[in-house]
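Example for tutorial group B:
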């Protein structure tokens, strides 16, 4: 006879967040002190009801409940205030589309982000990182966030279009994104359309930024159609328009939507991750020392990393993973219930907005002891528990997991290895860490740091090495 004890069903706690403002709900708290507000929610339950403007919504505060939501995309589909707003920018692209059309869209785009293709992008990433390095002069301050946005814009444009955008267009994309991500956040936490139809300067900047981003994508598509076919993401999409693969042809609008989705998701988040990594390393000299020791051993003299080096950049990957845990750029997402359902014992009506926050899950002390501490060693091989790996979800989970998750990791590792192998960044005197300004993504948007060279031409380890920067 079996003596196995039946697994007891967990009892979940539910509650309501205090501090509801008339009309604005919790939008003021989310806008003014977003991280403090999120950190306050677990005290009220594992599933906590809030107000987004006058609308009811529920925030999931436990990793197991979050996985219940993300692993059931037919019940909890993309939607809610965030994706409603994103849909006006991205159209019906991979990020914003409903579950019914997701599989076909992902299958179309997946080949460009398979592991074999990711390895081929190594030279592309390191070339652009080297270009940033050449612009960073020792003894001067450098605009780190701006440089990382330029780097990731040029990388993703080369993945999508073969050629990088020219310098003026790259700068314009970077500036437009700044206005868009901030405007999208305000429209998400206070979803009252009448406020955003007013002729206020911020509203005008937001609309202009949207218009320019769409125009840039349209110009890239038009230029390609005047030229030769290329083996890149745009080439794949245009072949799908012609129905070359025997599948049902996609529309010109779908080409536009896919490109603008991949451009926007491929620029902001990885750039902020890299900027955060440099800021955190500067504040944690022991983690920085171990990173430099690994880079000196694997890439002596600041040698450019190649795909064969990736398995040996163990601590570098740990720094990226811990940065994504400590300061995940994607910090708040929404889903919408497609039918009446039950979550954590709470009845949710069809159309209910459900939110989850990677930031909140990554700072849960039951999953990550001392969560405010930046500790890359958490992710050394064999060290993280299954529960910690499950609780880390900077790229979401389930079949809506980010298409380019591995590409984003490789890009960050290679860029960090290339830059940190040759330059050391220090916070300028008087630097004070401030809470990040809330937007669709979180991160240091105006980070400026002092630059120091790590290798000089007189260093015997670098003699004759053509990739070493002379300062």
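The residue assignment follows.
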């Amino acid at each position: 006879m079996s003596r196995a004890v039946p697994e007891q069903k967990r009892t979940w706690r539910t509650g309501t967040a205090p501090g509801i403002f008339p009309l604005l709900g919790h939008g003021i708290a989310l806008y003014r002190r977003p991280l403090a507000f999120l950190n306050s929610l677990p005290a009220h339950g594992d599933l906590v009801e809030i107000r987004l403007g006058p609308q009811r919504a529920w925030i999931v505060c436990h990793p197991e409940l979050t996985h219940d939501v993300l692993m059931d995309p037919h019940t909890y589909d993309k939607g809610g205030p965030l994706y409603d707003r994103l849909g006006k920018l991205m159209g019906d692209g991979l990020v914003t589309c409903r579950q019914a059309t997701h599989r076909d869209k992902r299958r179309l785009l997946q080949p460009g982000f398979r592991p074999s293709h990711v390895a081929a992008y190594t030279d592309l990433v390191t070339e652009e990182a080297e270009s940033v390095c050449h612009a960073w002069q020792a003894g001067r301050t450098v605009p780190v966030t701006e440089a990382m946005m330029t780097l990731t814009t040029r990388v993703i444009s080369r993945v999508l279009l073969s050629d990088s955008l020219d310098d003026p267009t790259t700068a314009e994309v970077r500036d437009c994104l700044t206005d868009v991500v901030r405007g999208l956040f305000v429209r998400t936490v206070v979803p009252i359309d009448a406020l955003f139809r007013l002729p206020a300067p911020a509203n005008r900047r937001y609309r202009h930024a949207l218009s320019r981003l769409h125009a840039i994508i349209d110009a890239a598509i038009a230029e390609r159609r005047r030229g030769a076919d290329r083996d890149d993401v745009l080439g794949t999409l245009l072949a799908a328009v012609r129905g070359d693969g025997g599948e049902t042809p996609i529309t010109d609008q779908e080409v536009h939507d896919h490109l603008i989705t991949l451009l926007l998701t491929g620029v902001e988040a990885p750039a902020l991750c890299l900027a955060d990594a440099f800021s955190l390393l500067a504040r944690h000299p022991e983690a920085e020392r171990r990173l430099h020791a690994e880079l000196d051993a694997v890439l002596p003299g600041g040698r450019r990393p190649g795909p064969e080096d990736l398995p040996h950049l163990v601590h570098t990957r740990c720094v990226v993973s811990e940065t994504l845990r400590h300061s995940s750029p994607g910090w708040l997402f929404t889903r919408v219930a497609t039918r009446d359902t039950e979550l954590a014992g709470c009845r949710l009506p069809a159309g209910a907005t459900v939110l989850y926050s990677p930031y909140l899950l990554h700072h849960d002390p039951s999953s990550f002891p001392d969560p405010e501490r930046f500790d890359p060693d958490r992710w050394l091989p064999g060290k993280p528990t299954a529960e910690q790996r499950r609780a880390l979800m900077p790229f979401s989970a389930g079949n809506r997991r980010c298409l380019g998750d591995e590409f984003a990791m490789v890009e960050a590792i290679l860029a960090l290895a290339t830059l940190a192998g040759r330059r050391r960044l220090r916070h300028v005197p008087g630097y004070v860490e401030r809470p990040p300004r809330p937007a669709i993504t979180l991160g240091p948007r105006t980070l400026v740091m002092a630059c120091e060279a790590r290798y000089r031409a007189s260093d015997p380890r670098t003699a004759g090495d053509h990739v070493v920067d002379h300062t």
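The longest strand covers residues 47-52. Compare this with the pattern of hydrophobic and polar residues in the output above.
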